[in-house]
Amino acid sequence: MRCSYIRLLVNDYEACFHFYSEVLRLPVLRGDETSRYAEFDVESGTRLAINQREVMAEALETDTADPALPHQDRIAVIFEVDDVDVTAAKLVADGARQAMEPRDWTAWGVRAAHFRDPDGYLLEINQPLLPDLAL
């Protein structure tokens, strides 16, 4: 597993986009002020991404106001793997709590599965659907 992204799940996407692109002056690799998802170059092998919080909640069919997870899904750590299905099965067998089974996210260009760590943080494992769509 290789940590490929740190994804901040934000409430005010436009303000955050301007902060990272104009205040911190991070080069924008993908997205714009209206896309609800953007990636920034942080001069490392891991990218910083921002995502409108509700988009992720809708994708995972979760409630952003879930009292069981009072700060649910403010951040996601993304790991790229060679085979999502094999890795997900191994993680489940080893006791990981799966939030969403593996599936193709064609709009994102990846096959991904989602898990929660013991403290409730969101983890994603993914692999590119097509090599030229690698994220």
Automatic annotation (TrEMBL):
Pfam family, one: Glyoxalase
Stretches assigned to the VOC domain: 2-128
Domain of life: Bacteria
InterPro entries: Glyas_Bleomycin-R_OHBP_Dase, Glyas_Fos-R_dOase_dom, VOC_core
The name this protein goes by in its record: VOC family protein
Organism of this sequence: Nocardiopsis tropica
